[in-house]
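Journal club prep — side note

Before the paper discussion, L.F. wants everyone to see what a predicted structure for a comparable chain looks like in token form. Sequence:
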Amino acid sequence: MAEVPAQDRPPDAKDKTLHLIADNYATHKHPAVQEWLGKHPRIHMHFTPTSASWLNMVERFFRDITTERLRRGVFTSVPELVSAIDEYVAHHNTNPKPFIWTKSARDILQKVIRANSHLSSKQNATLH
């Protein structure tokens, strides 16, 4: 991980708690990640629920802002980055387009039922 230059950090940054939100993948269980987190006790990880499909819409927005504005940008300070994000959001909001679900509620619920049934049968198999 890259360090934020000292001039861009608030003077009390090391006293602040940092909460990171991540997908619920197994990456965070890797020994190297666990070791790093152990050395940085102010960092608290939070993981999205595995069945929170509405978060996919949020992820799509972050993907768009990353590919359309941030990826090839050069930002020499945190305020410059914040300004670029604010400008993107303001521009996006001049002509917003809703994210549209491609599955019906019925399809989503049937998938959840199938997954739950599959998980339950696996759990029962391990108990016996």
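L.F.'s comment for the group: Strands lie at 18-22, 43-47. Keep this in mind when we get to the figures.
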